[in-house]
Amino acid sequence: MNRAWLWTGLAVALLGVGAYALYRYLAPTPLPEGILYANGHVEGTEVRVAAEVGGRVVDSALVEGEPVGAGAPLVRIDPADYEIALKQARADLLTLDAEARGIGDEIATWRHHLASAARELERYRRLGAQGSVSPQRLEEATDREREARGRVDALEARLAANRARQEAAAARRALAESQLARTEVRAPRAATVLVKAIEPGELAQPGQTLAMLVDLTDLELTVYVPERELGRLRLGAPARVRVDAFPERYFEARIERIDQRAQFTPREVHMPEERVLTVFGVTLSVANPDGALKPGMPADAWIRWNPDTPWPEPLWIPR
After folding, report:
1. Cα(251)–Cα(231) distance, integer angstroms
2. Residue 24: per-residue pLDDT
3. What is the value of pTM for the model shown?
4. HEC sequence for 192-236
5. Cis, peptide link before residue 314, omega less than 30° from 0
6. Which DSSP string do the residues of 68-88 spell out, in sequence order?
7. pLDDT, tens digit, for every residue of 64-116?
8. Angle value at C-alpha 94, between 90 and 96, nearest 5 degrees
9. Which of 52, 35, 41 lies closest to 209 in space, CA to CA?
10. Which of 3, 265, 280, 305 is the most exposed place for a label (fewest CB within 10 A)?
11. Could you tell me which of 280, 255, 252 has the C-alpha nearest to residue 266?
């Protein structure tokens, strides 16, 4: 009986030792002091490319996932209507300019007549004061001077109206030139086509999204750090980022921004026990020289807040 109890106790002891050893073996090693773990989703600077003029799309160079250079043509909208508007505005300007020259010539002629009529009227007035000219001749001279002055005033008013129409035509020409130039939609910056939103043959409306671009060289990762850890972080502190698509590769990163206001942990944080904490958003600028990272990828990040702590190889996720 005593021997049975002995063997039972020994088995229980061995089982306890084995369970503890298994626990220690399976339990992850905590990160070194000076390394902070967080996670989030990769984000990129997205640029919405929209149509500035309406019309049917006649050509598109958009290919999702393909890089485009700054100023590269993306979409061409049918320019026919805008070319017609431009030709009309230019023709109107030529017509108005010719009309203005004709009015100018008439003004010059009638100003000469006005000057002659004014001299003649002044001479008749002097003679009338001396009684050397009849009242009828004086009245005729007065009428000629008034007629010449009226013609000059009317022509000057026509010329002013012509100049106003020229300004309006010039504005129409400038608008047509601007609209014609905007039928060629170009990339505002070097980026990668994320979304192609229109096909050749479709009708584009002003303001309609044609494509969504993203700059893969300017990626960010926003992680959330508990308030108790915030005092350890500094702008520019180094970090390393890993995604499931490249489990053996670490992407270099640095702290770019630290939020000034706290918030409750977002639901995207993986560890449920951390979701009840007050946290601060920390934005990491992630180097992505070969474009391997893509917006939306879930990512793990390790921030080294103590510069004296060496990077462990490999990095692991604490539990």
Report:
1. 24
2. 47
3. 0.65
4. EEEEECCCCCCEECCCCEEEEEEEEEEEEEEEEEEHHHHCCCCCC
5. yes
6. E-TT-EEEEE--HHHHHHHHH
7. 989 999 999 999 999 999 999 999 999 999 999 999 999 999 889 988 888 88
8. 115
9. 52
10. 3
11. 280
Residue type, 241: V
Please write the tens of the pLDDT for every residue from 225-245. 888 888 889 999 999 999 999
SS3 314: coil
CB-neighbour burial class of residue 86 (10 A; exposed 0-12, middle 13-18, buried 19+): buried
How far is C-alpha 64 from the geometric centre of its chain's CA atoms?
A: 19
48-to-57, 161, 164, 186 alpha-carbon distances in Å = 17, 44, 39, 12
Q: Find the DSSP H helices in the chain.
A: 2-26, 80-129, 135-181, 227-230
β-pairing, 251-258 vs 238-243, is antiparallel
More confident residue, 138 or 197: 197
Distance, first Cα to last Cα, the chain: 46
Phi, psi values for residue 226, rounded to 5°: -60, 150
The bridge status of strand 263-264 relative to strand 73-77 is unpaired
- Identify any residues that bridge with 283 across adjacent strands, giving them in sequence order: 222, 257
Q: Which residues does 315 contact at the CB level (< 8 Å), separation at least 6?
A: 31, 35, 240, 242, 250, 300, 302
Other residues' Cβ atoms within 10 Å of the Cβ of residue 155? 20
Q: What are the φ and ψ backbone dihedral angles of 46, each rounded to 5 degrees?
A: -90, 140
- Continuous segment of H or E residues that includes residue 242: strand 238-243
pLDDT digits (tens, 9 = 90+) for 255-305: 999 988 877 755 555 555 554 567 889 999 999 988 889 888 999 999 999
d(CA 127, CA 289): 98
State the pLDDT confidence band at 208, using cuts at 50, 70 and 90: very high
